[in-house]
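Lecture 7 notes: from sequence to structure.
We start with the chain below.
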Amino acid sequence: MRTRLLRSLSVSFLVLSALAGSAHAAAKHPFTVDDLLAMERIGDAARSPDGRMVAYTLSSLDYDANTRRTDIWLAFTDGGAPRRLTSHPEKDFAPAFSRDGKWVYFMSTRSGSPQVWRIALVGGEAEQVTKLPVEVNSFIVVDEHRLVLAIDVYPAAKTLEDTAKLDEAKAKSKSKAQTYDDLLFRHWDQWEDGKRAHLFA
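Predicted structure tokens for the same chain:
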């Protein structure tokens, strides 16, 4: 009786092991481009002034909108579950803490062009900090009243509004042909348009 019971248990164990093994084997598959696109990507990390927190971006694929969605997340350096700080269909990126550690500043395209926004660590809605007629490339938080901004402008333009007007005139022009007779005419994925990066406070 005991031998029969042991044999029965052994067979049951083998059957369960085989089923588990086949299920595990069925779950395995070669790495595909769909797997690559489905992976969440972490980037743009910034440490809080006291070193207790890290703000970072997490981007994931939005199949319905056919784009990648990027939001700001917050994690504690001593462990614990990460917390989503922003949630918007437009891209939120490049987080930076305020000097007092109460705010996270970030870049966002939610106003139509890349501008600087901020959100309080205690929660609430994000608020727009810069409302410029041109795109902001990057920024540094100086203090609660000042930012240093990197902005592409035309050297001949005297104001940011002048650069915006020249961009608008180019966009409305029927002629889209351009002649380049000197390098660097193209940098990675964009054409040189005569602008230069300058710092603004």
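Points to note: Confidence is low (pLDDT under 50) at residues 4-20. Helices lie at 2-27, 33-38, 160-172.
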